[in-house]
Request: fold
Amino acid sequence: MEQLITTIAKAIVDHPDEVKVNREEKKGEIVYTLSVHQDDIGKVIGKQGRIAKAIRTVVYAAASGKSMRVTLKIND
Amino acid sequence: MREITSTGQTVEDAVKKALKELNVEQEQVDIRIIDEGKKGLFGIFGQKPAIVHVKLKETSELTGALLKWNENTDLNPLDEAKNFLEQVIKEMGITASVDIKLEEKTAYFNIKGENLAILIGKRGQTLNSLQYLTQLVANKTSTDYVPIILDAENYREKRRETLTQLAVKLADKVVKTNKEFSLEPMPSFERKIIHSTLMEDERVQTYSVGTEPNRYVVIAPK
Reply:
């Protein structure tokens, strides 16, 4: 799952080297936190959060078969 | 360069010159003859060159643009987009391949494989998200905008039929109740299906409300 989030983020930002994904387990839930270069935050969020929403939709679809709930946070 | 006016001793000459200049084949262009030219008396008096206007056809305009991208960088945006999409699908744990077809000015990406329901999602929302992200990747490497349509298991066509039937049904309901009806949010290309289905219907009007990605169609009595 980290790999999927990384692939998507790296493809749409200007500083792919600074894409980081952190994984944390909290009360039966997995929280992934995506961090990108300061100038790329808009690129992963988009107008009205449109890009963030698209990334989440894809990530949650991939996680739909898993037993644990998955959340994707974006560090801004 | 997408169109050019060229001259020559004969029409054939002028066309040949234009094709060479544009670096394309005759099938890829529309040719308009402006002047057929005159050979003139003894080849001296009253001689007039042939003039033609040669324009790249719509489809080859896209191909031309792609060729141009290839020249400028090693990255073809559609290849980039395809690699991206294949990688994402793989990392979602799904085995599938992607075919690209260019039609008019749109690139159609068809995902082929088994068990693609996860890629489509509820009302196509996963497919639409993948389409949006793929579009972003393509446009990052290119200056010209190429619309990308993603499809899997013929979902787009089925969805078109569903939306067309829904639109007709809802129009009847709106007329019967004389009350406007708001549909759920949809991406622009799906809203367009509703609008164009009801364009000819004299009893109702349609318009879109809200901002993306929550923009939705309203069907109202006229």
The first strand of chain B starts at residue 3 and ends at 8. Chain B has a mean pLDDT of 86.
